[in-house]
Amino acid sequence: MVQMKLPEYNVLEARQVKILKQIYELKQQVECLCVAVRLSDVNNPAEVLNKLNLDITADEAPIRAEIIVSANPNSPPYSILALQRLWKDTKFNVEVHRHSTVSDATTQAFEEKLLSDASKDAVHSIDVTLIWKDVSDVQLVTKVYDYPLEGEANVLRYLTRLIENYNYEKSPSVVHTIDSILDLCLRLSYEEARNVNAITSKIASYLDKKTWLLDGSNASIADVAAWSVLKRVASNRVPRELKNWYDVCEKTFLSV
């Protein structure tokens, strides 16, 4: 008998991935500090740095990445459509495949919204292999992890870490809020219908008469995650306090 993962498990898994990444980053910082201390003892510090090949400027270089996303055609990863329009400096090259049990008709509406032309300002490139198949939730497979990362909110967490400009974990003022909203989105993917309203109300509490869930004039990864999960599980039950925001998301994230 196949057991479904509990929402709490997915949240815990996301936290674990986050902690492991933070440990890795701390290790890199300690290594850099140790090198800096030793530089005073050499005649040519630049030469030492070159030999060590520390990844000091990696964040400034163009990012090239490959990911595999598996999704149920009845619950599409709308966040891909949103990021294609929101991240102007990143080209998402999406190649679609489908399991033999999935018909073209069930995925056509989504695929018609995919953008094939890259923005002229695109610097980074992410190759996405999108596989339509019978899965309980969106799954991500990369060369980094040897197991699928489940949940669209967790997929978004991973993508933000690829590109420095979008890594919200580098912004202490918003990291807690975004993580809280992403956790709510994960829960919403698994909750029974009777509990949906309670979670959408919590998401709505972050809006508080603003245009977007966070302060600022632009949409964030929190808006993308919340919009996508609402569109997937509760598009006909969007609470009144989120209706205007939801309509703006539809216009922004699905623009031609």
TrEMBL record:
Subcellular location, principal: cytoplasm
Entries under InterPro entries matching the protein: AIMP2, AIMP2_thioredoxin, Glutathione-S-Trfase_C_sf
This protein's encoding gene: 100121495
Keyword Chaperone part of the UniProt annotation: no
Protein's cellular compartments: Cytoplasm, Cytosol; Nucleus
Gene3D superfamilies with a match to the protein in the record: 1.20.1050.130
Keyword line: Cytoplasm, Nucleus, Protein biosynthesis
Name by which UniProt lists this protein: AIMP2 thioredoxin-like domain-containing protein
Domain of life: Eukaryota
Parts forming coiled coils: none
One GO biological process term: translation
GO CC terms in record: aminoacyl-tRNA synthetase multienzyme complex; cytosol; nucleus
Organism, as annotated: Nasonia vitripennis (Parasitic wasp)
Residue stretches making up the AIMP2 thioredoxin-like domain: 66-144
Lineage of the species this protein comes from: Eukaryota, Metazoa, Ecdysozoa, Arthropoda, Hexapoda
